[in-house]
Amino acid sequence: MVGGLRYHYLDEGTGPTLLLLHGNPTWSFYWRNLVLGLRDSFRLVVPDHIGCGLSEKPSRKEYPFTLRRRIEDAAELVKRLDLRDVTLIAHDWGGAIGMGLAAEYPERFRRFVLCNTGAFRFPGCPFRIRVCRIPGFGDLAVKGFNAFAGAAVHMAVEKPLPGAVKAGLLAPYDTWHNRIATHEFVRDIPLSPRDRSWETLVKVEAGLAQFRDRPVCLIWGMRDWCFTPAFLKRFQEFFPQAQTHPFPDAGHYVVEEVPREIVSLIRQFIKG
C-alpha cells in the first residue's frame, strides 16, 4: 500500500537491484522479457503505477494523478524495501518519475538505463497526443474507446505484436474507470507553465546534472514518433559520457521489439 492504495509490484531474483519503471499506457507486463532474462543474476523490482496494471484504480477525487505524486509513490516503495545501489531502468513516463526519485535520493542510485523516455521539458508533443487532452473529446476517446492504449499496441511498434502480447498490454484497461490513469497521464504532460506538473518537471530536469558522472545507458527505438531521437539527443547533452545504443528499426515499445538485445546490453552495462 502507498498512500492507502494498493500498489502492486514484482520482486524477483537475487543480486544487484534493478528498479524498472513503466510509462503510459503500459504496466509491469511490458518488462516481462527483461524479468525473465535477468532474474538469474539480479533482483528486479517492478511496480505498477497507481491506476495501472494490477495496482488500485482510484477516481480523480481519490488520487491526484500528478508527476509529484508518482515520484512520492515510488519513493515510498524504495524506502520500504530499503533499495540501495539501484540501477534504474525506465521507459516513457518512467523516466521523469525515476529521475525525479533519484534526484531526491541520489545515495540510493548507482546507474541509469533510459529507454525512449524524457526527464526534462519536452521538445515537442505530437498532435495525436495533444487531441487526447481536449476536454470532453479526450475523455470519450481515451476512456470510452480506449483510443490511447488501443492505438499504442499498433502505433508504438514497427513490427506487429502477437495477439497475446496486445491482449496482455491492454488487459488492465478494459473499462472506462480502469482507463482513468491512461487519460490522466496524458492530461498531466507538462507542456507549459500553465500545466499542473510543469514545476515538478523543471525540478526533475534540474536534478539531472548531479548524475553527469554516473554510468548511464541510453537505449532508443529510433522510429519512435513520440519520444523521438530529439529526446535522445537531449539526454546525450545532459550525459555526454553515456553509452548509446540506437535501434534504427524499432519504435517506442523498444523493449517489445528487441528484448534479447536489451537483456544483453544491460548485463554488459552493469558488469562494466
Overview of this structure, please?
- Helix 1 links the parallel strand 2 and strand 3.
- Helix 1 crosses helix 12, helix 2 crosses helix 3 and helix 3 crosses helix 9.
- The protein is globular, with a radius of gyration of 17 Å.
- The protein has a seven-stranded mixed sheet, with helices on both faces.
- The longest helix has 15 residues.
- With 272 residues, it is an alpha/beta fold.
Would you tell me the structural class of the helices and strands?
Answer: alpha/beta
Any low-confidence stretches, pLDDT <50, length ≥5? none
Oligomeric composition of the shown chains: single chain
User: Using DSSP, what is the number of strands?
Assistant: 7
Rg, rounded, reads 17 Å
Number of helices: 12
Mean pLDDT: 97
Query: Which series of helices and strands comes N to C?
Result: EEHEHEHEHHHHHHEHEHH
What is the molecular shape? globular
- The proportion of residues forming helix, as a percent range, comes to 25-40%
Approximately how much beta-strand content do the residues carry?
15-25%
Largest sheet: 7 strands, mixed
Strands ordered across the widest β-sheet: 1-3-2-4-5-6-7
Determine the N-to-C terminus distance.
Answer: 36 Å
List strands and helices in order, with pairings:
Blueprint: E1 9-12, E2 17-21, H1 32-38, E3 43-47, H2 67-81, E4 86-92, H3 93-104, E5 109-117, H4 127-130, H5 137-144, H6 147-155, H7 163-170, H8 180-187, H9 198-207, E6 216-221, H10 229-238, E7 243-247, H11 254-257, H12 259-271
Parallel strand pairs: 2-3, 2-4, 4-5, 5-6, 6-7
Antiparallel strand pairs: 1-3
Helix pairs in contact: 1-12, 2-3, 3-9
